[in-house]
Structure formats: C-alpha cells, structure tokens
Amino acid sequence: MALRLYRRHRKECEAGLPEDARTGQFEEGRRGWKKCDCVIHAAGTLDRKFSRRQTGSSDWEKASAVAAKWEEAGSWDRETEPSLPEPAPPPSTSSRMRIDEGIKTYLERPEGDGIAPATLRKLKTFTK
Question: Which stretch of DSSP H or E encloses residue 43?
Fold first, then answer.
C-alpha cells in the first residue's frame, strides 16, 4: 500500500493556516495558494504496522523520495535521511585529453591538412 503524504501546518505557518491543518500536494498546486515551510508527513501501513512520520522535509520531491525509501524497505525502521550519491571517479588520464592540450594539438597540424591558412591564423588568434 502506498504511503499518503500530507503537510501538517504549524502554529507559525507563513501561509496563515490554522495549527494542525492538513493539506496535500494537489491542493497546494492550485492558483493563489500561499506557500509555507511546514513539514510534510507520511502516513500508512508498512509491515502490518500503521504509523505517521515526519519526512523531515518541506519539499514535496524530497518527501516523496523519503517515503519511497520506506516503501522499498517495507518498514518504518529504515533511516529517513536520503543517502548521498557516490562521487564520480576521476576520469582516467589515458583516454581523455585536457582542452588546452587538444587545442595545441589541433593547431600544430600541418597547414596542408585541409585548413585554409587564413582560417588557421584566425584560430590561433582566437585561442590565445
């Protein structure tokens, strides 16, 4: 069963909604809706246990990601913090070339290699 997400408004709500008022993402998408930073909650049954929990976010996309992790784990006991993506490994130097090296290699080609002399002069001036 999918978890239901809703925003539960605080006493200090910037939109001026009453305390403990609940609104959904569809309602907040309407024209003229005042935005606020009240926390989004999730409610539903996982592993035959009904619970309501804060997602820790006031952004609908981040809250949906947290709820999806709970649903994927099938339990409320999973961490609510989304894991950071692993950093990309540094590119290998053997197969890639730096831009300045590529420009230098290109401009050092023989003049009879299909580039007009005026064009080559202009490229050298441009890349200085």
Answer: strand 40-46
